[in-house]
Specification:
The complex is a heterodimer of chains A (about 450) and B (about 600). With about 450 residues, chain A is of the alpha/beta class. Chain A contains 16 helices and 16 strands. The chains are: A alpha/beta (about 450), B mainly alpha (about 600). The complex binds adenosine-5'-diphosphate and magnesium ion.
Amino acid sequence: MQTTIIRAERVEKYYAQPSENRIQVISPTDLSIVPGEIVALLGPSGSGKSTLLRMLTGLSAPSAGQVYWHEQPIATADVNVSIVFQSFALFPWLTVFENVEAPLKARGMEPAERRKRAMKILDTVGLDGFQAAYPKELSGGMRQRVGFARALVVEPEVLFMDEPFSALDVLTAENLRSELLELWQKKTIPTQAIFIVTHNIEEAVLLADRIIVLGRNPGHVRTDFRVALVHPRDRKATAFTQLVDYIYKVLTQPDAQPPELPQTPTGKRVRDQRQMHYQMLPHARPGGIAGLLELVLDHNGKDDIYRLADDLAFEIDDLLPIVDAAQLLGFLTVTEGDAAITPTGAEYANSEILRQKELFRTAAVENVLLLRQIVRAIEAKSDRTVAEEFFHDMLDEQFSEEETLRQLETAINWGRYAELFDFDASRRRFIQPEKLHHDSESSAEVIE
Amino acid sequence: MIHLPSGFNYTRGRETLARAQVFKRSWPFFLDLAVAALCLAAFYGVLQIVKFWTGKAEPEFVVSLKPSSLPLYAFYSVVRIGLAYLLSLVFAIGYGYIAAYNKRAESLMIAALDILQSIPVLSFLPGVMLAMVALFPTRQLGVEMGAIVLIFTGQVWNMAFSFYSSLKSLPRELGEASNIYGFSTWQRFWQLELPFGTIGLVWNSMISVAGGWFFLMACEMFVLGDRDFRLPGLGSYLQTAASADNIPAMIYGILTVIAIIVATDQLVWRPVIAWSDKFKIEQTAGADRINSPILHFIQHSNALGAIKRHTFVPLSESIYKRVAERNREYRARQAAGQVKDTPVWLRVGVLILLGAVVLYAATSALLKLREIHQGQYLLVLEGAGATFLRVNVSLLLAALWTIPAGVAIGFNPKLARIVQPIVQVAASFPAPILFPIIILGLLRMGGGLGIGSIVLMLLGTQWYILFNVIAGAMAIPSDLREVATLFQFTRWQRWQTVILPGIFPYLITGLVTASGGAWNASIIAEYFHLKGQTLQTLGLGAQISAASDKGLFQILLLATIVMALMVVTVNRLVWRPLYRLAETKYKLS
Ligand SMILES: Nc1ncnc2c1ncn2[C@@H]1O[C@H](COP(=O)(O)OP(=O)(O)O)[C@@H](O)[C@H]1O
Ligand SMILES: [Mg+2]
């Protein structure tokens, strides 16, 4: 049997809210990392990938459950891991050399030994000659090389990466990815396991020996499977595209059966967002929804989401919210990773702008509780305005502050587009849209 | 690596190269000489100060108006400001650090900061002086410490706040990187927290030191009850010169102050700003950097390099090593479950003791207020009203001229290049120096101190507004201005739709700073000793000054509390909402 390096046992994470509620971000999850594998963690944004990664590294303590490092509680163990960050997280005031040397200094290593190791790793990642430069003098790709050098110089047992290539352009990312893979396969680095968080499905399939897909609200493991493809992997191979397609299916499929509601240590129930009042509005713009529907219509009203994403050159993070939104509004149905347009959706895609707004308005009021409530509240008030704060406080009960703000932003966006209401940003109030202006505009349109 | 051109004669080449080497090396050689000279000078300076300070106390020092005594006076004044600044820096960093990391103390410490920033520093003068003199009754050190502590209280709060907010806005992933790589508190401080806070500290240091001059002028020479305190320095020199109506001496003094301000700017701030450029968090290298030959000199001097290699580097290495070892031991003990917290009873006990002391001091202070009778209360309130009016009139006047001037300068880069350095010197020029001259002028013209003090407040505070308006006008995107031109906006429309909203957030920042400054200035502007006469007008500032003159501590306390309350209230009720409005509605980003 293999020895596990890191084992997470029913770890959970929730964040306290100003109100009595807590937001559950990760529901009880088991996960282990064993030597010799590259694990990719996939999931839509906000599903808790970074949160899970930080618990596995010991950076943040789980709210419940335990993480073990070689079977010792991670909080007190002598952990040897590194993280490569999406934002590089380099110290701008230190030179490349000093950045790479810093972790060794933290271990109290002698200057001569530090120098030797740092220079060697800089050489390995292709940075020799740059040791005296400051990070801001380097390109993004070179900066991430420094990030890798700093992570590798301590010879970590597990190398963690949180979307390490997301901030880079496609070619640079490709280049770095293959170099990393080469280091790993030739065992140039003594690292035992790599754990990479990504929202790029192809990246996961290119690199990983094992892929874990996370679902959200709250974050939970949807599937965890091994990838048996041999390296180097060919993006055009059937096995490859099938796997990518499969992951799209998993990501777009609603859960078959929700897991049991978790219990907090005090016996208080943690509220599960799926059972709550408000659905989570996907952060998509109406224009994006119309664009997607038109594309689906072009593909005879039904197609694989994977192919749609490919056509649009979108990553799932960009596409999923739009698909979700179209689904929520009843313009699209998704089964088994196939998106099919509904009759309303088809009409929406074919109409001119004013008719589109009308359809959107009807669909939004029918399907989106928050929008319906805002409209009702405005109508109920004699001055025809309602403070944003009112809804903020209600959303606050079930979303994190950050998410609440994004929910409101999306609601405002949709409501304005559908002319359900207008929003006065300086007073932070919803107000009734000006009907007059709208009517004259529509009559002009008719004459045309 | 030097690439020789082909056909280059090897021996000749070596000769030339060798000579080139000598030439290259001779520059650092001169630098080293300069370093040696500087070290000697510093040594002599320290000796002087030590001799003077530990010498017999001379509280009633007779100020000589000979120009030849100016260098020594200037030296004493600069040392006072310098030491007060160093003290402020250390204190600010410590205060900010504790406030940012100690969750329990945080809210209390930040509230305290807010209030301490609003308390008129000059009303501390009597208390601080008496305490320090009592501490060192026979030595000059006592009075000197008093002056230094007073300047310190005027400098420290904005720096502390700056460091605190830097720590609070540390980029999350940088913090996580230092955690994951096992940085000790020590390493985290030097490689993450302090560097990240540096830019804020540098800018606030410049403001603080400029403010330090203001307080220096006030505390080098003052009367307290029946005691007359005088410290040799530029402040006392100028005040004496004004009292004696000695115009040439005044001119010499003012020139010295200007020379010191310009020298500080060139020799200290420019190199520091150039150096602090590397602490910018922005991800691209900026094009327009400030160059500083001094910085170049420091970074390229062999002697300084050698000193650093032999002292600083080994020291820091040994600290890093020790800290790493200690951390490893600590972790081992933690794993074995041997780490104990401080017992609860001890912490509670210390807290209770502290609380009792604070409570006792506060009640005894309040009891003092009982000695005041009603008439005096009324007088203080009247004074508060008068000073409130004066402060606001001075702000209004300042805004009236600085807004158009600032916008004109901000929109015209050529003008800005010429005016900016002049404005900078003017802004750090301590206004109290000019007070006697202006008062004399006003009196000759038949004006009273009631109006004169407004002019004095204006003098000290208008620069903050001007600076901010210039910055705001520069920040207005040029396409917005072009749109205004394109649509042929009238002048009024232009101001209404583009300029005023554009500069609004900056204007508010300037006004807040200026308002605080004006309140503080009222203490020296409303009450004045000149040629053996005492000039004063109705006002809270005058009451504070008069009370410390006559040693009436209960009135001093009352007036100080009233002033602090007014400043805090105005901040909360007026400036903060305006600030929020500026941040949300008028932010151009
Ligand atoms: N400190 C926090 N307080 C409250 N909510 C948080 C906090 N950190 C993260 N969250 C929430 O947890 C969820 C997961 O975040 P994250 O792990 O960053 O997701 P991912 O990396 O998959 O995009 C998000 O909805 C986010 O709003
Ligand atoms: Mg993330």
